């Protein structure tokens, strides 16, 4: 995926890249922002979505609407090729309706393309137990 259009050079840029792909209606681009071994806890009361197929499943319901992802990074801590981020976010449809929102916690990891991608994505905070 070295020819990806949007690459997160810092962990804090992952959401920005996901947002750009979401607005472009590019599901493959969104999936490229996730580590192949990722786990996505959304909705938080369901078992995690796993791997790139799980990332695709998590976003396919939003992609046709081409919504805007509004994300404000609260924290970014980097240790080598692993990072912890936290953000406040909303997904807003073109008419201004809020489709989803939350306070996220994510673990990011360096990807093969040199950018960063989500390894563990908890859009509504960490679940109490793993699914």
From TrEMBL:
Pfam families, sorted: SnoaL_2 (PF12680)
Domain named SnoaL-like: residues: 22-96
Protein's UniProt name: Nuclear transport factor 2 family protein
Biological source species: Hoeflea prorocentri
